[in-house]
């Protein structure tokens, strides 16, 4: 199928490109599915399971957990900050008011 792209306008070209990309994705998914079936068949024919070959579970991510607070708002002691991530507004306001980081430590 030959398409004369010189006679297409901008919108028609964009539509053709998006359809071609969608079809390309469909073909890729089909190919991946067939390959996956082949691999599973080969593994089964040898008497193994997928987990025997590639491992049963993926490595678990290390949990960072919660970090104890390092700084406390002197105006409102319920507001704390661990020192990680973006500085809270109350922390920046206290610094602008002349306080130092060490003054806000718990």
TrEMBL record:
Its main location: cytoplasm. The keyword Ligase does not apply. Pfam families: Histone_HNS. InterPro entries: H-NS_C_dom, H-NS_C_dom_sf. Coiled coil: none annotated. Residues 61-89 are annotated as: Disordered. Keywords: Cytoplasm, DNA-binding. It is found in: Cytoplasm, Nucleoid. SMART domains: HNS. It comes from the Bacteria. Residues 59-106 form the DNA-binding protein H-NS-like C-terminal domain. Belongs to the histone-like protein H-NS family. PANTHER family: DNA-BINDING PROTEIN STPA, PTHR38097. This is H-NS histone family protein.
């Amino acid at each position: 199928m030959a398409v004369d792209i010189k006679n297409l306008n901008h919108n028609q070209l964009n539509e053709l490109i998006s359809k071609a990309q969608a079809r390309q994705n469909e073909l890729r998914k089909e190919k991946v599915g067939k390959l996956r079936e082949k691999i599973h068949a080969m593994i089964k024919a040898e008497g193994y399971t997928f987990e025997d070959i590639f491992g049963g579970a993926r490595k678990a991510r290390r949990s960072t957990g919660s970090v104890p607070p390092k700084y406390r708002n002197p105006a409102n002691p319920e507001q704390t900050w661990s020192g990680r991530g973006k500085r809270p507004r109350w922390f920046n306001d206290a610094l602008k008011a002349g306080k130092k980081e060490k003054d806000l430590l718990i």
